[in-house]
């Protein structure tokens, strides 16, 4: 049974930082590309960042480039999202995503709220 469990969300003031973590289990972690998506109330889920399975190449949404950093630890089966210079518009539920071997898995989400 594949599980992705996010942690590290919370309430922070604008300009602050948070670090999200995603613990994966039940899958061969190194064979999966990992990503973060977010969904704000009344909006569609949107891509935030991704990291490849092999060379750890990273991609980011334009809205977070230069502020967010995705990383992974294959030995620990963890993926992280360091979020700096947070803005109120970054407030959303953040979801961890794993894609590989023709399958995709999602975590339950972690709430991030940025106050102005």
Kindly describe this structure.
- This protein has 116 residues and is mainly β.
- It is 0% helix and 55% strand.
- It is built from no helices and 11 strands.
- The protein has strands at 3-7, 10-13, 18-25, 33-39, 46-51, 58-60, 68-73, 78-83, 92-100, 103-106, 110-115.
- Strands 2, 4, 5, 6, 9, 10 and 11 form a 7-stranded mixed β-sheet that branches.
- A hairpin with a 6-residue loop joins β5 and β6 (58-60).
- The chain is globular, with a radius of gyration of 13 Å.
- The model has no long low-confidence stretch (mean pLDDT 96).
Mean pLDDT: 96
Instruction: Tally the beta strands.
Output: 11
Q: What fraction, in percent, of the residue positions are helical?
A: under 10%
Number of helices: 0
State the low-pLDDT regions, or none. none
Strand content: over 45%
Q: What would you call the shape?
A: globular
Tell me the distance between the termini.
Answer: 40 Å
Radius of gyration: 13 Å
Instruction: Assign the structural class, choosing from mainly alpha, mainly beta, alpha/beta, alpha+beta, or little secondary structure.
Output: mainly beta
Main β-sheet description: 7 strands, mixed
| Helix and strand run | EEEEEEEEEEE
């Amino acid at each position: 049974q594949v599980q992705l469990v996010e942690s590290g969300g919370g309430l922070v003031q604008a300009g602050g930082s948070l670090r999200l973590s995603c613990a994966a289990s039940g899958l061969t972690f190194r064979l999966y590309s990992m990503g973060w998506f977010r969904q704000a109330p009344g909006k569609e889920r949107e891509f935030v960042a991704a990291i490849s399975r092999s060379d750890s190449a990273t991609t980011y949404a334009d809205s977070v480039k230069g502020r967010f950093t995705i990383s992974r630890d294959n030995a620990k089966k963890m993926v992280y999202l360091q979020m700096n210079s947070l803005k109120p518009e970054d407030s959303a539920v953040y979801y961890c995503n794993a894609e590989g071997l023709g399958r995709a898995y999602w975590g339950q989400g972690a709430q991030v709220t940025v106050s102005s």
